[in-house]
Fold this protein.
Amino acid sequence: MLRLITSLSFLCLMMAISSMAQGPPVLDTDGNPLTRGVEYYVDPAITDVAGGLTLVARNGSCPSYVGQVPIGPGSVEGLPVIFTPSNPGDTIITETTEFTVAFSASSTCVQNTTWGIGEEDPETRRRFIVIGGEPTVFDIDSDQAVGPYTIGWCPACLNPPLCGRPRCGLAGNDHGKGSENKNKRQWQGACFLPGMAISVSVAQPWNR
């Protein structure tokens, strides 16, 4: 009996440690955990600058990029996204969950609307979030300094001795100083709203 109680205590302890390691769930505006396969609007914490996220064609050509809907007449919610945890067994998005993001919408450039961090511009030293390329793994952290949540990314290193220090960042931060900077919209925090797809055609580019 003592051995059984000890085993059960150890099991409960391991379950508690596992639960803490997963981090708290990321909540939408209804107070429900973000869930795999569900559509959400990503609503910027700073709402007087630009609206939700959508597809943008820089210079009118492909590929498409992640951008923000400008403030103006009509809806500014943008397009919904779907979060897919990297671990097939995960259904809830927590603050330690690694996941990919895709727009729940079609693109005139490519069929795949999964987000990826593009190559660094040698002049501006900025990276835009592009769709249709190699998917990037993101995560979400709570940060009351800039908004309810921030979306971050950090490239995976398959061969640590050869990778060096990874270039990580927060999606949406605009640190660029180039001539394009006046056309960018800063996006640092987010709320996640349940919703269905809507049509938006005009937007501003969005970068990290």
The longest strand covers residues 50-57. Helices lie at 2-22, 160-163.
